[in-house]
Amino acid sequence: MKSLRNKRYNRNSTGFRKLHETICAAACSGVLCMSFLQPVQAAPSVSDNAYSDTIVNSSEGDVLTADGHVVNTTQAAAQKAEPIQSNELSGWPEGPAITAKSAVLLDAGTGTILYAKNIHDKMYPASTTKMLTCLLAAENLDLKDTITFSESAIAAVPADGSNIGMSVGETITVEEALYGLMVGSANECANALAEKTAGSIDAFVDMMNEKAAELGCSDSHFVNTNGLYDDNHYTSAYDLGMIGKAFFDNKVCLQIGNCASYHFQATSTQPDDFTLTNKHELITGQVPYTGIIGGKTGYTSQAHENLVTGCERGDMKLICVVMREDDPAQFEDTATLFDYGYENFSLQSVEQGDGLPASDGISFLTEGKDLLGSGTPALTPADGGVVILPSSAELSDLTSDCKNNIITYYFGGTDGAVVGTTTLVPASLSGQTDTSVAGEMLQSGNSEKAGNPLKKMLSHYIVFGQNDTTYINVSSVLLTMIGVSLVLTLFIHFSAAMHDARERARQRRRRARRAHVQRNDYYENHRYDHGDQYYDNRYDQSYDDYDDYR
Questions:
Q1: Which residues pair with 299 in a beta bridge?
Q2: Where are the domains of the chain?
Q3: How far is CA 123 from the centre of its chain?
Q4: 3-class DSSP assignment, residue 503
Q5: For the whole model, what pTM was predicted?
Q6: Using an 8 Å Cβ cutoff, are 427 and 419 in contact?
Q7: Which pLDDT score is estimated for 394?
């Protein structure tokens, strides 16, 4: 008979859980008996003060949960009373009060933040970090490739850290390691995947920070692959939402991140048969909720309970992040926020002409027989202009602007909530979800990508597409031509006027010169007739005579 391996006795092992339950039951019985013989004393607990894990005497409000976690009800009440920033937006549905210190609910399709509570506060993520680890590994590794656990991958995991008991030299597939990472929250799998992807844990951590920045995370800094506590390892609810958005867009991550349990079969390089069970109760169904598509738990004494969850109903895919609260509130609050999202918001399509703004460039291009540009639009929103709105709102409540062929829609003015963005593409591509195709077609016309000043100027009038397709902004061209014509006409009239003025001045100067010469001639002729004295006396008169003569 195959002998049992001590390494499998961890918190993910069924045998270990039964043993743990038995020991706990015996311990509780012993404590109960001793309570009749000794005075009651406060039990030690984990302080909830400033992320500290210092062991202190139990304080007022501390409650011991069934799984051994200490819940400070006083702290929970204080966090529940903290303001919800999304409720400050006029006309926005009022969000529920929850015990999480920080939380965000966002629509994955539009990126719209539906619920916001301290979303940029820096928090310890614990094992929710592994979503980013999983994403990078899924993007860079072949699932069928194998991973051999190195000494560094094992040694970096503390003895009490979450693991599935892999030993140095054992080999599993990348796919199995990913299931170990997401279902079993295995820290050694995180390290092994990192080494397989980047060559070393440190190099992989650099990739994590680069990827986070690429996804728009500005509140994060990662120093390890698994979320084990470190003062310099932190993120925010908003950043986890951005990571979650990319995670749920990846097919491999979507499959692995929604697995309730996973069975490891024995192989020649991994000789044990065992099953992992996910601790995410919305995934396992312990907390029933329709539409769950995956997520990740995370707990350390410093971070408390963190939870990232995705849910999809109809055409709405929502991502919920709750941080720093105590079990089981993270599951209850997540379900509450999903209810808030699906009950108060809906997706709407913005058709051409319904809120489509005039833009700074080619956004109002048209094609057709009308010289003035009326007719079929040459450019239209790539996805129909999808926005998410409060159920009671209308499209007329929106404002919008357009820059670089991207329309941004706002609820509550341009300082309010961004409820959707869309890229303008040729009308022939309307309805395509892959806007990268559209971007390629219009890359020459995008002023941001036009490094040449001449191209930048022409991009306002002409868009060069693929397949020898050219879109011309007839209206802009016509208006520009009219403007240039007016300028040229004014210039010609001004030049003619200046020429006439100069010609009249030259004529006056010529007449003056002729008059001067004739006067001199008149003087010389009459001087010899009358003498100098006569001329001296008649000088003025001679000119008068000359003027009369002339």
A1: 305
A2: 6-73, 82-348, 350-458, 473-550
A3: 19
A4: helix
A5: 0.68
A6: no
A7: 86
Identify the three-state secondary structure at position 340. helix
Alpha helices (H) along 109-186: 130-140, 151-155, 174-182
Using CA atoms of 476, 477, 483, 488 in order, give the dihedral in degrees to the nearest 10: 170
Q: Is the pLDDT of residue 502 over 50?
A: yes
Q: Give me the amino acid identity at 159.
A: A
Give the CA dihedral 273, 277, 283, 284, nearest 10 degrees: 100
Q: pLDDT band for position 279 (50/70/90)?
A: very high
Contacts of 349 (CB under 8 A, 6+ apart): 384, 385, 386, 387
Distances in whole angstroms, Cα of residue 518 to Cα of each of 504, 512, 513, 524, 540? 21, 10, 9, 10, 15
Q: Vertex 144, ends 142 and 145: CA angle to 5°?
A: 70
Q: State the chain's mean pLDDT as an integer.
A: 77
Q: Of 267-271, 275-279, 493-497, which gets the smallest average pLDDT?
A: 493-497
Is the backbone peptide bond immediately before 381 cis, with ω within 30 degrees of 0?
A: no
Amino acid at 377: P
Rounded Cα gap, residues 17 and 160, in angstroms: 15
82-348: CATH topology = Beta-lactamase (3.40.710)
Q: Which residue has the higher pLDDT, 250 or 537?
A: 250
Distance of CA 254 to the CA centre of its chain: 19
Q: In whole angstroms, what is the distance from residue 97 CA to residue 117 CA? A: 9
Quick one: pLDDT at residue 314?
Answer: 93
446-464: per-residue pLDDT in tens? 434 445 555 555 555 555 4
Exposed, middle or buried, 464 (CB in 10 Å: 0-12/13-18/19+)?
middle
Ramachandran sector of residue 275 (left: φ over 0; alpha: ψ -120 to 50; beta: rest): beta
Please state the rounded mean pLDDT for residues 243-264.
97
Q: Among 324, 433, 274, which residue's Cα sits nearest to residue 100?
A: 324
Reduced to 3 states (helix: H, G, I; strand: E, B; else coil), residue 319 is strand
Calpha distance 195→438 (Å, rounded): 37
pLDDT for the residue 82: 94
Question: How far is the CA of 82 from the CAs of 65, 78, 79, 102, 117, in angstroms?
Answer: 24, 7, 5, 10, 8
Cβ atoms 411, 404 nearer than 8 A? no
Mean pLDDT of 313-325: 96
Cα distance between residue 173 and residue 144, in whole Å: 6
Highest mean pLDDT among 15-24, 104-113, 386-395, 442-451: 104-113
